[in-house]
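Posting for a labmate who doesn't have an account.
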Amino acid sequence: MPTKKKVDAPKKELKKAATTRTAATKAAKTATPKGSKGPKPNAKKTPKAKKLAKGAVPAKVGVAQLISSEVVFQGALFRVLHDKIIEPSGKPNERDVIRHNGSVVILAIDSSKSKKNPWIVVERQYRHAANQYLWELPAGKLDAGEDALAGAKRELAEETGYSAKKWKPLVEYFASPGFLGESMKVFVAEGLVAGDAHPEEDEEIEFRLVKLSDVLKMIEKGAIKDGKTLTSVLLYARLHGGKGKK
């Protein structure tokens, strides 16, 4: 039975291959200096955000130029506009915006027993848009041209029956400025005097007094989901020393 023999590559071809590999290695070393890692790909540097100086307020820029505005919906509480504008940057754009007279929020405080942990008037009512009952601070919409403080006094009396001897503004904010033009002005009401509530016909409101510390616990547990209540209570607690303990 014939045996298979191993066939060796010709010596000339082996020598030629070795010479080629040596030349390639020398060329690579010449192209890349010793200690160098070779050229790096061009990478875009991320611009660093400028830090705002302590206590400084960002500079105001211009407002959009309104080219046209069309009312596409008119309801009892708000209207929807389709606006064509030129942005402050000069870019043309189109926006659908909900326009509203604005609202007031009342953080009604009873600090007669404890200034550090006062009682707060909170309400519970069903909100169809949220499809659930929510705990909230007293609040309501302003009538056209109505003064904000006058509206706050009216809403507190209507919903809870309380009036207050002392009023002061806490904060103003926009709940969802991407499409909603509603401004919400928050007032702190102190020196409460009880009275008879007279809510509107479509309002079914349950209200009670809850300690600040307990309201904060409700927030921590996720029991309060209303934005105006979260904003107002947390800011008040921060300005008045934290967690409302005695």
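Reply:
Got it, the structure tokens are right above this. Residues 11-31 form the longest helix (21 residues).
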